[in-house]
Amino acid sequence: MSAASRVGVGALTPEPLLENNPSLHDVTEAICAPVELDVAKTPIGWLIGFVCALGMLGVFLGAVGYLFWKGIGIWGNNQPIGWAWDITNFVWWIGIGHAGTLISAILFLFKQKWRTSINRFAEAMTIFAVICALMFPIIHTGRPWLAVYWLLPLPNQMSMWPNFRSPLMWDVFAVSTYFTVSLLFWYVGLIPDLATLRDRAKTKTRALIYGIFAMGWRGSNRHWQHYEKAYLILAGLSTPLVLSVHSVVSFDFATSVLPGWHTTIFPPYFVAGAVFSGFGLVMTLMVLAREFFGLKHLVTMRVLENMNKIMLVTGTMVGYAYAMEFFIAWYGGNPYERFTFINRMFGPYWWAYWTMISCNVISPQLFWFRSIRRSIPAMFIISIFVNIGMWFERFVIIVTSLSRDFLPTSWGYFRPTLFDIATYVGTMGLFFTLFLLFLRFLPMIAISELKGVSPHADPHAHPPANGATGKENH
Amino acid sequence: MKRPPIQWPAPDPNQKVYWRSLDQLAETPEFRDFLHREFPEGASELSSPISRRSFMSLMGASLAMAGLAGCRRPEEKILPYTHAPEDMVIGLPTYYATAMAIGPAVYGLLVESNEGRPTKLEGNPQHPYSLGATNSYIQASILDLYDPDRSSCPMLAGKDEKDAPVAVAHGEHGAAEHGEHGEAAAIPKIKLGEDDVVGFLKEVRGKLAPQGGQGLHILTGTITSPSLLRMREQMKADLPKARWHTWEAVSEDNCVAGSRIAFGTDFVTHLDFEKADVILTLGADPLGIHPDAVKNGRGFAKRRRPDKTTDSMNRLYVVESAWTVTGTNADHRLRVKPSEVTSFAVALAAELAKRGIAMPPGVAEALPKGLPATFDVKFLAAVADDLVQSRGRAAIAVGHGQPKELHALAHALHSALGSVGNTVTYTQALDAGRPLDRDSMTELGTALDKGEVQTLVVLGANPAYDAPVDFRFAERLKNSKATLIHLGMYRDETAQLAALHIPGTHFLESWGDLRGRDGTASIVQPLIAPLYKGWSELELISFLCSGRQSRGFELVRETWRGLAVSRMPAPTPPPAPAPEPAAVTPPPTGKGKNKIPPAPAPAAVAAAGAAKAAGAVRATEAGELKVAVPAPTATAGAAAPAAAGEATAAAPGAAPAQPAAIPDNGPILFFERFWRKTLRDGIVEQTAFQPVVPGLKAPEIAAALPALAAVTPKAFEILFQTDSKVYDGRYSNNGWLQELPDPVTKLVWDNAALLSLETAKALGVEKDDMVRITVRGKSVDAAVFVQPGQSSNTVALALGYGRPNGGRIAKGAGFNATQIRHLDGLSFDEAKVEKLGSKYTDERDDWFGDVVKLTGLVSTQDHFAMEGRPLLREATLTRFRKQPDFAEHAVHHQPLLALWDDPEELKKGQQWGMTIDLSACVGCGACTTACQAENNISIVGKAQVRKGREMHWIRIDRYFSFTPQTFEHTGDLTDNNTEVAHQPVACQQCEHAPCENVCPVAATIHSSDGLNDMVYNRCVGTRYCANNCPWKVRRFNFLDWRGDVEEVAKLKYNPDVTLRSRGVMEKCTYCVQRIRGAQRDAKLKLANKQAETDRVADGVITPACAQACPADAIAFGDILDPTSRVAREKKNPRNYAMLAELNARPRTTYLARIRNPNPALEPERPEAAHGEHGEHGAPAGEHKTEAGASHL
Question: Is it the case that residue B22 has pLDDT exceeding 60?
Fold first, then answer.
């Protein structure tokens, strides 16, 4: 096939969302297969992954247990760097948690049908990422046993309320709201699929468990009407949350007086960065999962390419924000701020800064090339770069700003300890443990929704010529 | 406020069962044994480690068992200073006056005691050497009292207590067993009981006494105690052949010897920094490590803080090698090698002579010629000109390490410049005519070599560590087969060599007396019974003299009885002889301090007593003091009135109109009243020597001066510095001092081989590189710290580190300078420095969990430039006169607006604020230690300081300026162009505190009187407040810093300040506990109708930092009261707020630093560098916050 004809096809007819024209039953079978495997037939790859993830989870529990026993001093945090990896990880995980809701809610509202093959996956990722993120506001405190409930506005005999002026307080509300809505959204979307699994269950236990969570879904017209309204409402509720939660997280920094933190560009910049990093991780995991579970025909190259385009856009937005920060630092005339930004580039943390720029600004620019946009290895590697770069973005913002602020006599340098690393790696263990359980016990792709976008669901659709597109994927 | 005394019912002897459990306790043999030993002796024998619980139960037992064993308290009364002497009110601290000595220095103190535990030391305002202020040594010495490493029991040939076979019961080993102590090491290490010590000493004395003390040698530090001097005289009578030696690692030998050259006898030089217009220091550190430093700091600072453009300032020239605190305050500093100080002084003398200053005859001619003059000639000329211009108002301070001839020359210069009687005064020396430490040690060494020493008693000295390497103390001691008896608070290096080690007492545990350098005497009264089985130095010497145990209390009273009685008002016919006062003690009663009838002694009796004072017995007693304080044989003849007047002067107001009563007890009562007053005041009235104008012996000076030619600069020199933290090593087991950043290097927990930039470059070394310093074949390896501005080809190494046996805190700290210190090169010496190629690896580093395993020296402040930021603002006097409010104009910014209106509550009542005068601050660090003591601030250890987790609530930021006056990071930092400035930074108590907004749990909130409160209980430790603090003054408990504090160490805690758990943020509170205490008192006064308002008067509240500050640089008070000191200082044109442009409105503001450079050396720089007022087009009003809202 010549390049010209390929361009022609690509340009005029949209690639199908599903390849090989699967029947509705095929869709169900393909998605339910990994969930319904016998215990004995659990794929060895999954088992290995799960054991690794559990091991990392053990590291997490150990690190956090020791942290509770000894105190924050086991980390590398110091004076003046009161926050380091802890809050970096928190913001990073929260950022990752943005993709799911963005894909589910915003793309849903914009009727982007390609979202259906990845939305469940991304939503699950969101939930787990937010769970990981939620750990940090608790464990990073000096006295977590009090922080757990003193941060909540609970009535008490001291008539003592939290300080509503504190952005950390806003965080509590923003993140917990986001988590609640995301969880509901995900769960509501799962109900028809849970019913499918219930109906297909071969054992009573499975039927019972899936049945309980399916909440009596029978697929009646009434159910569907209510379901779709609820889903739409939740999508509507989630959409502003996507914007608000990371804006509020950015307020942790923006409302402070610290040069490098105190800047009004943070809310949009953080949201763009969050979407960027969220897509990055979805991409990393999706590329692996679709390969592993044989779902390439359901999660097509078109979907992946669209995601890469979003990464290109958000990556460029992030790059613009970096540039704008510098411009304002110069234009604003605040010598402290000016110093902070020069220090970011050329100070003791130059390596972190340039890692961030390379990963976040330069690497996604490769997606301008279609071949790279559609190359599985390239997008996998770039997505990993994005994950790294976005972690460093938070590290740069938090640590370099804190390390050198107003008084040169109180400048410092942060070095991580093994416990910093263990805690970070450990949260990945928590994430992957939950994620692998999800892959094994819940449909990773929304069956009902995917059927809705399959050619069979479209009474006017003509099945595309076999092999017209997507061949290069084989 | 008059508080009625609390009346306790007298204990009923018939009712023993007071507390049933204690009664039962009393039945146990252990307790009976305890009582037997405890109460009759008047010394507690609390076993170690002491738990608070057992401490309290023992205290309770002493109360309950009063009928059983009698009460010890009335026997040795200690009296409170200002507070009502009735009874202690639980929960209220009481204050007692006492005094402490550090080498030759004596400081009068007021000690805060909480329920019988001394917790905080403050300067006694009446004492001329503390003036209410203190230094770091004093502040930290309270920690030594409760040091768990203190020696808790006597040891025979003790190594470590842990090594010792434990169970040797009392009396099991007879005296015969340790008859011969030739081989100390061969004796089994045995723990001793109190009786054994007495037995041992009796045996030693039994052998020595028949020989008249032949073979007994005693080694002490500098003696400033009249009682000890009296005991020394006593020993001359009792054991005439005993020899007495003194050794001080930081010795005043050269000063004394210089005085002997110049005057033929010992005079102490006093420089009056308050009067001096021009001060020149020659290798001296009069504001840092000097016996007079606290006093000097006060005087110096008074002349450094101009308020009006018409105010004048002094000018300080410093000629030194390594940085001292004084050097950092210099207007002009010349860095020269230690030996070049001499050539500078000689050249200066020649210059002065050239300028027509009349030198004493022969002196100018005798000045050695042709000394190498490598220093800046312009500097020399400027100093000479300035000294000539300020004739009569100049002062020259010569370092104790400089040769004696230089001291003599300085005396001559002072005389020539007309300073004597103005800026320089002389008084007789306390222990005049004493052998110099060096000679004394040489004599001891010879005696050891000859085998003349049978018994060497070392008191309060540590020759095994700090004697020079060529003295070879341990080796000579071993060869001599002498028995070493050591008395000291620690099982230190000397204790390890001792046949018998006796635990010494802390000065807060034992009675004593001290005389300051001007003669002012103080009684050292204990505030707590000895925690361990301690002996005081007095008690040991007294035992050696008399062979029986005497209590320090009686020994001290004996010393002063003579003087007191001699002051009784004069004469009427003598009545019958009075009973021997020495035997008289007030009858023991249950009540303590109040039993002496308050009625004054009857006139007749008083008169009678006075008459007796003139009689034989009294005369002897009075004479005892004179013996202890020998009058100088003044050549000028002017000194005579001093000593004469002193002993005979009548105490003013000594009750001329007293009613008659008990005839015979007159002297006793008089003495008791004298004693009580003395204890209360903390100083003995009229004991200061009169200033004298000694005659200068010009020929002797002229004869001595050529010797200076021998002090020639060497290619490479070493300077032995006295450490600003551990002194000569005596405080090296003190955690507060180890963790206190050095004033200049900011190093903690170590000393280092300090090298200048040039020298480090030439040697190819940088920080943490190990070098080998070799002096006359002896060498020590030390880590390098590069110190810009030090003299080149000089290595400076502080004393007091690298102690082999200093205790747990001292272990591993630094490098031992005494290994290369020689008896004739105690201050500086020729040295060789080689690079070893290795790095300093510190065993104390705790790398648990660290990815990057760092080691080496730790400094709390790595960055030394201000990056052009106007944080510490300073100007020259000339510029200040042109534009007094230059500091406010250092930053121009937009009008500062706030989101909220100011709370009404911040505009009324009393609003607290602080000013810190950067012009006065000398940077000594006393505030940091005082704050640590007051606020129960933990130390964290070197490894944690490296991680930036030190907990000091007030730190002193030190900046190096590369080019004078700007502190900008322009050009390269060089040795030649370096100045230092200090800026103490504590919580700024902002009105719009950035920390308060961001705390999610409202743990840091604003009080209605303007304090930024920290609610520890509420804090969950998010650390956001610390992140958001622009001044970075908040301190987080990353780990449980209090966790491993031993029980005895817990006694030091201030009960008014919460201990912070881990995970909690803390910071300066303006000493809120003191504020609330004063407010409570004021409210009580109002309630009792003793006052018309509950406002706290200005000056009543003093935060710990301000109280300790020798320079009085910190003012605190109500900023709404226009008459308060702080409000007045805030109106000072120099006042500015650091980072005011952030609109946080700090309540702590700074008064800009003013320097007074000599225009001849430092031409006034164009003001454009600072930004001329008006150039920026900002009207003055814009610099302020909204009108009326600013309290800046």
Answer: no
Q: Which of B1001, B1019, B1044 has the highest number of chain A CBs within 10 A, making it the mutation to test binding with A?
A: B1001
pLDDT at B39 (0 to 100)? 45
Q: Kindly determine whether residue A140 and residue B863, on different chains, have CB atoms separated by under 8 Å.
A: no
The Cα B46–Cα B1079 span in angstroms is: 38
Long-range contact pairs involving B448-453 (C-beta distance under 8 Å, separation at least 24): B448/B476, B448/B477, B448/B479, B448/B480, B448/B482, B449/B476, B449/B479, B449/B480, B451/B480, B451/B481, B452/B215, B453/B215, B453/B217, B453/B480, B453/B482
Contact B1030 A405 (CB under 8 A): yes
Residue pointed to by tokens 């757990």: A148
Q: Which two tokens stand for residue B446?
A: 């010879």
Interchain CB contact of A417 with B (< 8 Å): yes
The number of folded domains in chain A is 1
Please tell me the distance from the alpha carbon of residue A72 to that of residue A64, in angstroms, as a whole number.
Answer: 10
- CA distances to B348, B352, B610, B806, B1144 from B339, in Å: 15, 21, 56, 32, 51
pTM: 0.83
Q: Tell me which chain B residue has its CA closest to the CA of residue A170.
A: B1000
Q: Is residue A196 part of a domain?
A: yes
Range of the domain at A331: 16-155+162-404+411-454
User: How far apart are alpha carbons A117 and A103 in whole angstroms?
Assistant: 10
Find the CATH number of the domain harbouring A362: 1.20.1630.10
Tell me whether A333 touches chain B (CB under 8 Å): no
Tell me the shortest Cα–Cα distance from B701 to chain A, in angstroms.
Answer: 49
Residues A257, B1144: C-beta atoms closer than 8 Å: yes
pLDDT digits (tens, 9 = 90+) for B1131-1150: 999 999 999 888 899 999 99
Burial state string for B631-641 with b = 16 or more CB within 10 A and e = fewer than 16 = bbebbbeebee
CB atoms inside a 10 Å sphere around CB B1169: 11
Residue position matching structure tokens 């008047």? B42
CB of B514 within 8 Å of a chain A CB? The answer is no
Q: Give the chain B residue nearest A168 (alpha carbons).
A: B1000
A 122-141 residues with CB below 8 A of B? 140-141
Q: How many Cβ contacts (< 8 angstroms) between chains A and B? A: 181
Please indicate, yes or no, if residue A304 is contained in any of the structural domains.
Answer: yes
Q: Which two tokens stand for residue A192?
A: 């028809």
**What is the band of B1175 on the pLDDT scale with cuts at 50, 70, 90?**
very low
CB contact under 8 A, B1065 and A142: yes
- List, in sequence order, every beta strand (DSSP E) within B247-356: 267-271, 278-282, 315-320, 332-335
By three-state DSSP, how is residue B592 classified? coil
Give pLDDT, residue B1185: 36
Would A459 be classed as within a structural domain? no
ipTM: 0.91
Radius of gyration of chain A measured on its C-alpha atoms: 23
Which residues of A are less than 8 Å from B849 in CB distance?
Answer: 74, 417-419
For residue range A304-360, what is the model confidence (pLDDT) as tens digits? 998 899 999 999 999 999 999 999 999 988 889 999 999 999 989 999 999 999 999
Position A11 in a domain: no
* Other residues' Cβ atoms within 10 Å of the Cβ of residue B350: 18
